[in-house]
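Thread title: Can someone regenerate the structure for this chain?

I was given the following input by a collaborator and told the matching structure tokens would be attached. They weren't. Posting the sequence so someone can regenerate them.
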Amino acid sequence: MKVAFLSTFAFDANISLINALKNKCDIYFFTEALYEIDNYLDKNKLTKFMSIGNEVEQIQRFSKLIPLDKTFVIKGTRQSNIIKKIYNSYRINKKIEKINPDVIIFDSHLITYLLTAFKYRNKSLLIVHDPFFHSGENFTADILLRKLFFSLLDYKILLNKNQENDFIKHYNQNPHKVFTSFLSIYEYLTFYGKKDDERTEKDFNVLFFGRISPYKGIKFFLDACVEIIKLEKYPNITFTVAGSGNFDFDITKYYHYSQIKILNKFIQPVELSQLILNSNVVICPYIDATQSGVIMSSFAFKKPVIVTNVGGLPEMIGNNKTGLIIEPKSTEQIKQAIFKLYENPQMLEEMSENIAKEYFYGKKSWTQSAKYFLDAIKSISNKI
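Best answer:
Regenerated them for you:
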């Protein structure tokens, strides 16, 4: 069976999912190089509109995960250039027509693949990364494009089970055409970086990383950091906040604390992998959420994660097993969770072992996730 996987992201979950699918179906991978923050691809290094994977140096390191000869990297165009964007969509669709896939997977709702979505709407599966918009992120263009793709494509797959029923009710979806799977570890990061040899074993670092946005609850984390520092009992606990975007609160006062490091910039994968490797625990203090690539990035390095009890996050964490689950908007619970892991190094080691057992080889591995995708693909193919 031929499957075309149309993406605006190159790395994160997609290459691991494709790796798990490629032995079960003949898979073709399309990705758009537009914004580096999306997939770390520099479109200015591309010499033509559509390059084969073997020709793109930045993804050749992933040859064990994706079939480079069936990977196509598109030199992207900004959404604002609507005429060129639609023309490019036409050119991409012509390539897909030659492949003649049995099923198409879309991982986004952008104009890049609009004509393909229209032509192949009866045999397409849309990955819905965010069933509901995050706080402060309901942008008009996203709302309109989502409505368009939701109306074109009947078959959808969510990456968590928690929100399935709410999604079906809210968007009036046919429950027989809505599937679920889950994220597993972001293997691509393990191809970068190494642990900082200067870091001592006595250091205990708590890391937040990811795009800066109001729904991330970063202020609650930073306030907890300050309270811990003011106790003057834990000089070896350090805190890192890393990511690009604008803070929705005054960040300046937190720069005054030497134990807090704020990297307010786009984090390249080499630096990100080192940040995770040098951390002891990662935190996701979100106010609302769906699933989280941050958790899967952390788990790729067997790092336990503290998460809030929102969206699909509790599905991804075994409380006291692979991390800790706390309530949102609680500085006190963040503090107590950090203290619990700091004071119990044996628990941290056991959590790392549990992550490996469950996500590298067990029921939450990409092999298991891909089975749910294959079930959806076969269901669509059988109804065509």
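The longest helix spans residues 82-99.
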